[in-house]
Amino acid sequence: MQYDPIKRSLGKVFNQSPFLRKVFYSLLDLLLLRTWHIKKELKSFAASRQVNGEILDAGSGFGQYVYRMSRIFRSASIVGVDVKPEQINDCNTFFKQLKEDDRIVFQEADLTTYCKPDNYDLILSVDVMEHIEEDVQVFKNFHASLKNDGILMISTPSDQGGSDSHDHDHEEGAHGFIDEHVRDGYAIEDIEQKLKEAGFSKVEARYSYGNPGNISWKLSMKYPILMLGVSKVFFIILPIYYLVVFPFAALLNYFDVRMKHASGTGLIVKAWK
């Protein structure tokens, strides 16, 4: 069973009203460990400097990170770009309903060609680069689009199994649990080298989804989605399941964010222009 079709189905359910979409965003904030890591980095960045210019969410998806950044960076304008027109339309409709379309806009764009020179204070890219073959070109576009002293933040799978492609439950030749990846993940040295090749002056990368995070991900994401793949009846059981499991998953997420990991299936990368 693949992750993305289930994610799209859940998105349709919660897209029926602004209230339900906010609930959806809140659930993603609680359940997705990558969100815990990204929120930590965003709050740290916000504490270090005032952002009055523009921010780019490169690969904005459902718009949950744009929504989160709109709450953290109250004076900033935010642009979300994605290749999927249906998600762009849904996000523009939602933020128009919130009456925030004056400073938040979503556009359909291909990151291999999208570039706005010297425009952004911050570029965020969450779980996007593993889908793009021409990654160095995208990194060059990011570098060109940042203002001087601007920062790029990336969350992406590592080469330690971030796409779950090394799961021994899969038969040889089968796709990973998360499909549509052009690479299983990055080695730290690989992504650092590519970012420096693109022109970034300083790069820092660290592992996420260490041992606590991997256990949490299986409890809070992988196993429930596998159950939903067996039968939609599990939609009824899920609230009870999460009532039992979430306190343990949240504690594991907390430790994953606070700990320094020698290895992990995810990477959090920051690069400065």
Order of helices and strands: HHHEHEHEEHEHEHHE
CATH class: Alpha Beta
Helix content estimate: 40-55%
Mean pLDDT, to the nearest integer, reads: 89
Poorly predicted residue ranges = 165-178
Proportion of residues in β-strands:
15-25%
**DSSP strand tally:** 7
Strand order of the largest sheet: 3-2-1-4-5-7-6
Task: Explain how this protein is built.
This protein has a single domain, classed as Vaccinia Virus protein VP39 (Rossmann fold), CATH 3.40.50. The chain has nine helices and seven strands, in the order αααβαβαββαβαβααβ. The radius of gyration is 18 Å and the shape is globular. Mean pLDDT is 89; it is low at 165-178. The chain is α/β, with parallel strands linked by helices and 273 residues long. The chain has helices at residues 3-14, 18-31, 33-48, 64-72, 85-97, 135-145, 188-197, 211-230, 234-258, and strands at residues 54-58, 77-82, 104-108, 120-126, 146-157, 202-208, 266-272. Strands 3-2-1-4-5-7-6 form a seven-stranded mixed β-sheet, sandwiched between helices. Helix 3 packs across helix 9.
